[in-house]
C-alpha cells in the first residue's frame, strides 16, 4: 500500500515537471500575441497613474513658482478637509445612482413594450436608441439650450400648456437638469440590455405560465424578472462605470454651478487642475477616486461576468 | 387559450370576446408605445428642425413649428472651417480604431483560443483600466505631452483613444473567438497551420462580423470623445466636439447654427449605429450579452 502511494506521488510529480517544461516554451508562444496589447495598456494607462500618485505627494501649484516640494500626505489631509470635495463626491453618487436607476426603470419599460410584434417595431426601436448615438456634447447643448432655456426652451413651453410658470432649470435645478440629459442618453443602453434579456427567455416557460392561468403581472414578477436579473445587474454595473465619469454634460450645462452645487468629482478635479492649477491636490483627488472606484467595482465585476460565463 | 370547460356554444362566444378584447389591448399598447417613443425622440426632432430654421425662428417664444426650411445654417457651419475639425476627428477615430483592432485581435486570440495561466487576471486587468477615471491621469498626460512637445497633436489623441478602446475590444473579440468551434481549430493544428496562417485563413473570416461590431463601438467612443480633446488640443488638432463647443461660446448664441453643427457632428455615428443596431448591445456589454 505505502509503496504504491509513493509511486503514485512520484509519477504525479514527474508529470507536473514535464508539463512545466512544455509550458515554459509553449507558454511564451501562447502569451506572445497578448503582449503588445498588454504592454501598450500598461504604458499608456498605468505609468501616468504612477506619476499621478507622485504628484499627489507634492506641493505643486503652477501659480506658485516656489512650490513643488515633497509634502507627504498633506494633500490628502487637505482634500478631506475640503467641503467642496465632499459635496462633489456626494454629487457624483447622486448623479450616478440617479441616472442609472432612472435609466434602468425607463429601459425596462421600453424593452417590455418593444418585446412584442407590432406595426413599426423596427422604427420605434431605431427612434429609441438614437439618443445614445447623438454626440454627448451635442446632446448636452441640446438639453441646456433648446430644451431647458428659461425663455425659449421647449420644456417650459410644454409645461406652460398646463399652466405651470416658466422654470430656470439649469440655475434652479442643476442636478435635475443634468439628470434629464444623462437619463435621456443612457436609457437606450439599459433598454438594449434588458431587451436582450427578454429575448433570451425560453418561450416554453412563458407559455407554461400562461396555460397555468398566471396573470401578466404574476408572469412578469415570478418568471421574467428573475430571468432578467443578471442583465439588470450587468446594466447597473456597466452603466455605473460609464456614468460615474460624466464630464461633458456638467461642463456644458451648468459648469458645476451655481457655485459648486452641481460639480461632480471629475469636474471638480478638472477645475482644480486646469483652472486652479493646483496639480498636487487634483492628483490626490484623482488617486482617491481611483481607489474608491476599484474597490467598489472589482468585486461586482468578477461576480457578474462569472455568472454570464457560467451560463454559456 | 382559456382552459375552463364550458358548454360548446358559450366557448366559441367567449373565445370571440377574448380575442376582441386582446386585439383592443394590443392596439392600445401599440399606441402607447408609439406615443412614448415619440416623446423620447422629440428632442432629436426638435434639434433637426432647429437646424433647418432661419436664426430668427430658432430661439423664439412661443416655439415656431412651421417655417420655410433653409440650408443656410449648414452652409454657414461648413464655411466656418468645420472641415478641418472633421478631418481631425476622422484621422483620430480611423487610425485609433485600426490600431485597436491590430492589438486586440491577437490578444483576444491568446486569451480565448489558447489560454495560458492567469488569463482571467489579464482580462480583469484590461477591464479595470476602463474603470480608471480619465480625470485621474489627465495631469501627468498633459505634463508629459508638453515635455515631449506633442500637445495639440493628433498623434497624441490617437494613442489615447487606442488605449481607451482597447479593453472593450479585447473583451468583445474574446466573446466572438469563443464561439469558434474547437474542432475547426484542432483540424487546422493537425494540418500544421501556424498562428498567422490560422488567424488569416480560419479565424478572421469566421469572426469578421464581430470585428465589424468591435470597430463600430470603437468608432462611436472615439468620435464622441470630448475630455482629452478639450484639454490636449488647440488650433491644430481640435476635433468635432471641440468645434461644437467653440460654436457655442465664442460668438454668442446662434441656436440654429449650433443645431446644424450638432446634426453634422452626430450624423456619422447615428447612421453607423442605426445600420448596426443588432451589434450595439454586444459591444456595449463588452461581449457579455449576445
From TrEMBL, chain A:
It is found in: Cell membrane. CDD domains: TM_PBP2 (cd06261). The keyword Transmembrane applies. Keywords: Cell membrane, Membrane, Transmembrane, Transmembrane helix, Transport. It is a multi-pass membrane protein. It comes from the Bacteria. Residues 89-300 form the ABC transmembrane type-1 domain. InterPro entries: MetI-like (IPR000515), MetI-like_sf (IPR035906). The keyword Cell membrane applies. The chain crosses the membrane at residues 34-57, 89-114, 126-145, 175-198, 282-305. Belongs to the binding-protein-dependent transport system permease family. This is Carbohydrate ABC transporter permease.
Automatic annotation (TrEMBL), chain B:
It holds the Pfam family BPD_transp_1. The keyword NADP does not apply. The chain crosses the membrane at residues 24-49, 85-111, 123-145, 157-177, 198-222, 228-246, 258-276. Keywords: Cell membrane, Membrane, Transmembrane, Transmembrane helix, Transport. Coiled coil: none annotated. The keyword Transmembrane helix applies. It is found in: Cell membrane. InterPro entries: BP-dep_ABC_trans_perm, MetI-like, MetI-like_sf. It is a multi-pass membrane protein. Residues 86-276 form the ABC transmembrane type-1 domain. PANTHER family: ABC TRANSPORTER PERMEASE PROTEIN, MALTOSE TRANSPORT SYSTEM PERMEASE-RELATED. Belongs to the binding-protein-dependent transport system permease family. This is Carbohydrate ABC transporter permease. It comes from Arthrobacter cryoconiti. The lineage of its organism: Bacteria, Bacillati, Actinomycetota, Actinomycetes, Micrococcales.
Amino acid at each position: 500500500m505505502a509503496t504504491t502511494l509513493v509511486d503514485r506521488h512520484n509519477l504525479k510529480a514527474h508529470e507536473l515537471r514535464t508539463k512545466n517544461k512544455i509550458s515554459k516554451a509553449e507558454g511564451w508562444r501562447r502569451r506572445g500575441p497578448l503582449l503588445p496589447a498588454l504592454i501598450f495598456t500598461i504604458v499608456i494607462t498605468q505609468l501616468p497613474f504612477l506619476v499621478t500618485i507622485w504628484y499627489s505627494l507634492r506641493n505643486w501649484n503652477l501659480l506658485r513658482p516656489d512650490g513643488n516640494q515633497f509634502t507627504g500626505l498633506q494633500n490628502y489631509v487637505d482634500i478631506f478637509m475640503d467641503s467642496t470635495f465632499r459635496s462633489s463626491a456626494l454629487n457624483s453618487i447622486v448623479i450616478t445612482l440617479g441616472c442609472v436607476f432612472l435609466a434602468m426603470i425607463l429601459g425596462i419599460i421600453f424593452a417590455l413594450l418593444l418585446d412584442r410584434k407590432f406595426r413599426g417595431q423596427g422604427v420605434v426601436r431605431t427612434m429609441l436608441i438614437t439618443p445614445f448615438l447623438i454626440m454627448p456634447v451635442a446632446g448636452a447643448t441640446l438639453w441646456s439650450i433648446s430644451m431647458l432655456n428659461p425663455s425659449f426652451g421647449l420644456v417650459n413651453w410644454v409645461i406652460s400648456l398646463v399652466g405651470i410658470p416658466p422654470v430656470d432649470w439649469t440655475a434652479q435645478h442643476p442636478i435635475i437638469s443634468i439628470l434629464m440629459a444623462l437619463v435621456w442618453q443612457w436609457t437606450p443602453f439599459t433598454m438594449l440590455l434588458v431587451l436582450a434579456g427578454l429575448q433570451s427567455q425560453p418561450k416554453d416557460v412563458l407559455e407554461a405560465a400562461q396555460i397555468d392561468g398566471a396573470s401578466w403581472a404574476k408572469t412578469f414578477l415570478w418568471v421574467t424578472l428573475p430571468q432578467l436579473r443578471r442583465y439588470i445587474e450587468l446594466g447597473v454595473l456597466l452603466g455605473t462605470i460609464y456614468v460615474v465619469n460624466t464630464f461633458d454634460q456638467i461642463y456644458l450645462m451648468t459648469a458645476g454651478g451655481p457655485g459648486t452645487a452641481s460639480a461632480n468629482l471629475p469636474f471638480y478635479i478638472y477645475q482644480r487642475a486646469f483652472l486652479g492649477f493646483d496639480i498636487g491636490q487634483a492628483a490626490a483627488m484623482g488617486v482617491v477616486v481611483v481607489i474608491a472606484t476599484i474597490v467598489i467595482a472589482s468585486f461586482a465585476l468578477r461576480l457578474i461576468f462569472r455568472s454570464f460565463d457560467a451560463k454559456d | 387559450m382559456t382552459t375552463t370547460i364550458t358548454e360548446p356554444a358559450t366557448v366559441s362566444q367567449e373565445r370571440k370576446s377574448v380575442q376582441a378584447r386582446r386585439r383592443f389591448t394590443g392596439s392600445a399598447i401599440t399606441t402607447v408605445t408609439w406615443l412614448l417613443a415619440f416623446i423620447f425622440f422629440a428632442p432629436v426632432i426638435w434639434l433637426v428642425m432647429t437646424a433647418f430654421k432661419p436664426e430668427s425662428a430658432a430661439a423664439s417664444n412661443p416655439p415656431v413649428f412651421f417655417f420655410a426650411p433653409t440650408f443656410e445654417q449648414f452652409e454657414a457651419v461648413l464655411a466656418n472651417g468645420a472641415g478641418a475639425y472633421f478631418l481631425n476627428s476622422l484621422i483620430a477615430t480611423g487610425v485609433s480604431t485600426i490600431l485597436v483592432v491590430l492589438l486586440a485581435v491577437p490578444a483576444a486570440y491568446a486569451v480565448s483560443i489558447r489560454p495560458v495561466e492567469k488569463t482571467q487576471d489579464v482580462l480583469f486587468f484590461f477591464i479595470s483600466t476602463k474603470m480608471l477615471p480619465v480625470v485621474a491621469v489627465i495631469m501627468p498626460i498633459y505634463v508629459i505631452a508638453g515635455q515631449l512637445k506633442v500637445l495639440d497633436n493628433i498623434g497624441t489623441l490617437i494613442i489615447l483613444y487606442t488605449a481607451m478602446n482597447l479593453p472593450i475590444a479585447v473583451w468583445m473579440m474574446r466573446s466572438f473567438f469563443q464561439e469558434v468551434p474547437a474542432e475547426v481549430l484542432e483540424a487546422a493544428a493537425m494540418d500544421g497551420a501556424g498562428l498567422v496562417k490560422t488567424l488569416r485563413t480560419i479565424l478572421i473570416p469566421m469572426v469578421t462580423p464581430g470585428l465589424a461590431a468591435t470597430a463600430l463601438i470603437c468608432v462611436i467612443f472615439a468620435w464622441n470623445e470630448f475630455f482629452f480633446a478639450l484639454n490636449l488640443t488647440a488650433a491644430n488638432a481640435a476635433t468635432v466636439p471641440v468645434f461644437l463647443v467653440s460654436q457655442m461660446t465664442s460668438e454668442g448664441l446662434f441656436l440654429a447654427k449650433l443645431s446644424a453643427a450638432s446634426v453634422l457632428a452626430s450624423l456619422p455615428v447615428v447612421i453607423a449605429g442605426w445600420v448596426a443596431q443588432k451589434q450595439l448591445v454586444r459591444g456595449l456589454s463588452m461581449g457579455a450579452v449576445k
